[in-house]
Amino acid sequence: MICEVRHVRRCEMGRRKDGKAKTKLQGQALTPRQRMVGDEKEGSSGDARKKSTKRKERTKHKEKSERAEKDVKKAKAVKSKSVESFDDDVRVHSAVLDEPEDGNFVPNKRGKKRKRQEEPIEGPSTFKMNNLKEEDEASSGAKEKSRKMKKPKEEEGACPVTTKKSKEEKGECPVTTKKKSKEEKGECPVTTKKKSKEEKGECPVTTKKKSKEEIAAGKALKIKKKEEEEQQRWRWWEEAKYEDGVKWKFLEHKGPHFPPEYQPLPDNVHFYYNGNIVKLSLAAEEVALFYAQMLDHEYTTKEVFRNNFFKDWRKEMTLEERMLITDLSKCDFGELHAMHVEKVEARKAMNKEDKLVIKEANQRIVDEYGFCMLDNHRERIGNFKIEPPGLFRGRGEHPKQGYLKKRIQPEDVIINCGKGSRVPEPPAGHRWKEVRYDNTVTWLASWTENVQGSCKYIMLNPSSKLKGEKDWEKYEVARRLKSCVDRIRLQYQQDLKSKQMVNRQRAVALYFIDVLALRAGNEKEEGETADTVGCCSLRVEHITLYDRLEGSDCVVEFDFLGKDCIRYYNKVPVTKRVFKNLKLFMENKEPGDDLFDRLNTGLLNKHLSSLMPGLTAKVFRTYNASITLQEQLRKLSNGTANQAEKLLSYNRANRAVAVLCNHQRAPPKTFDQSMANLQSKIEVRREQLTLAKSELTLAKKEVKGHCSDSKLLALVERKKKAVQRCEEQIMKMEVQATDREENKQIALGTSKLNYLDPRISIAWCKNMEVPLEKIYNKSQRDKFAWAVDMTQTDFIF
DNA sequence: CGAACTACTTAGTATTGCGGAT
DNA sequence: ATCCGCAATACTAAGTAGTTCG
């Protein structure tokens, strides 16, 4: 069935020109989270147009040899048009739009960086079900609802209320009070393996055999460790900030950790070509193994992936090998794959001691490379490991998937550290590409990755000062937006009537960003990445206008792939003015043309920062997410509920945000199973409850007969307790089931980690008397230590 | 000015490993 | 003791946005 659907869709896509057929079909048959699954023939990108000379690295893989002539023609056409329209644009800036609604204005069609994807023709139908999600009304309905919830524009107009308290809250001008001098001088002796699982101090009930003392001792130890850790914590938020641009004064680290060298295959594992054993050179063998290891993965069924891999693999081969191996389908990686599977199994089946040995070895690596000294404090590094080589796993229909991601050598790595610090030693026999001493950046090491030509950095852990400070600042900017968002909204409502096209487009885009929490939508280089869009890069084909739909007027249907190729699908009623403008923007355009042809993120952000210092498009997402959480918590939570219910309402508030921000996940593979398990558990409990109840009545009866036999009375009490316990447990499980079901394809983590001001959650926990551990795990508490420390019950975002 | 370059945040998925159930 | 389910963590791709360069 799915295949059928897919087939149909392909056909439709084949004539995507009209835009409509495609969109409609997607809306019906595909799921909200549909990744563009596709068809890789011809690398899916047919357009020769390259707007500019790209970086050298970037051109490397650009052998788009076979290109349909018509595409070239089309590209040329577009190009010339774009030149034309540029002039036009200049004029129009000052041009007057007298009757724009009547369509006097002819929108130009500037070809931006992106280019139309070549239409899929056919391909292996390896449609992975579990990447799909059923499109259900419920979910889009929920989205709309959540949208409405935060719509009330002037409702929270009373924002100034916040200012009162927030003053000292934010401690904008942190006094330099060095309270904690403790570790200050102690130089942080490299002790404290903070690996401790003190996490849940509540349940010391590990092994029953342990004596009471042992348990107590363990508990005490944990508490002590916790305290120690707390004392060690750098309370940077109480210190003065550095002058502009300076990120640190002293930085010392051991450099990145490199992955182990490649281990050649054992002699009994063979690669076959065309049925014959072929002993590959080391380099070619390593790359072959990368592929063999992925054989179970859907990637290896994709044409683009296979072609890209093969192309890059052949580059690693010796001349001889290259002559011989010319067809991927004649390659047999079976034994390599089997060896890999075996290894994985063996690792799983390892006994405890061996596992411990490995664990300890890993720990030693962490101890050595995982920390740095930054301004007298020992900070955790986030990713201290150089990314190992492998095959590039781009998301969605990425044109570069399958290319070889090369092994990084010390000679590729730039080290950044403090002047006067001990410069990290390169691995024996090697040297660094460069050592620099730049304290205006936060990275410790960087290298250029070969597939996309972009930079990779080694940076600190989220719990570090450098990250925390930035995070705090982010939420403060969002809170500032709160106090002027009404003005800004008023302004863009006005701009919807502007005589200048660019202003109208900006206003509509801003409306989307504000109301729907869309991302900004930077331009992307065509053919270099999957075809995804954000607000400013929306194309005509991504929206459909309905004068009337499902009981609402002026409905816009969005259907596009956003970041990470996550589908955004939503039907939203908009104001008449926005609707009219959209119609105007779409006039005389092809489906593949930009909706906001006069706008880009730079322009938009420039405008925004003129309205409020520090304001950019993404601040709206932060602001709307946090304010939604706050509102929802207020609405949903009930101080008299029990803990499970309170947590459910928290999760629901969190969920409203995740829906708003379109944070999705693949439903866990075991979802249905585990749901069923939970249900059957509930059933069992129910039976127990019935039983307990009848026992209780029986006991009561007996009491009545024998007046007050103390034994019987005790029995009744016991039975009562049992009934109660059962009820509680059932309730708890039911709440859990609800929560899990609602969470099936929603990811809460992203918003919790990146969009929700932690102080809202912390204040809520305090007010609701819910332990913070129920909301934030250990690393989240570390990340938000600044907020945990400073937040009082009266915090208002 | 726009493209390129750089730095840093945000994102979903894969892997790990813990604790409870058996 | 082992298995299993899930939460936590690791990983790295893919965004945003500021700065520099031609």
TrEMBL record:
Residues 675-743 form a coiled coil. It is found in: Nucleus. The active site is at 755 (o-(3'-phospho-dna)-tyrosine intermediate). One of its GO terms (molecular function) is DNA binding. InterPro entries: DNA_brk_join_enz, DNA_topo_DNA_db_N_dom1, DNA_topo_DNA_db_N_dom2, TopoI, TopoI_C_dom, TopoI_cat_a-hlx-sub_euk, TopoI_cat_a/b-sub_euk, TopoI_cat_euk. Gene3D superfamilies: 1.10.132.10, DNA Topoisomerase I, domain 2, Topoisomerase I, Chain A, domain 3, Yeast DNA topoisomerase - domain 1. GO terms for biological process: chromosome segregation; DNA replication; DNA topological change. One of its GO terms (cellular component) is nucleolus. Keywords: Coiled coil, DNA-binding, Isomerase, Nucleus, Topoisomerase. CDD domains: Topo_IB_C, Topoisomer_IB_N_htopoI_like. It catalyses: ATP-independent breakage of single-stranded DNA, followed by passage and rejoining. Residues 36-50, 63-74, 81-92 have a biased composition (Basic and acidic residues). SMART domains: TOPEUc (SM00435). Its EC number is 5.6.2.1. PANTHER family: DNA TOPOISOMERASE I (PTHR10290). Releases the supercoiling and torsional tension of DNA introduced during the DNA replication and transcription by transiently cleaving and rejoining one strand of the DNA duplex. Introduces a single-strand break via transesterification at the specific target site 5'-[CT]CCTTp site in duplex DNA. The scissile phosphodiester is attacked by the catalytic tyrosine of the enzyme, resulting in the formation of a DNA-(3'-phosphotyrosyl)-enzyme intermediate and the expulsion of a 5'-OH DNA strand. The free DNA strand then undergoes passage around the unbroken strand thus removing DNA supercoils. Belongs to the type IB topoisomerase family. This is DNA topoisomerase I. It comes from Esox lucius (Northern pike).
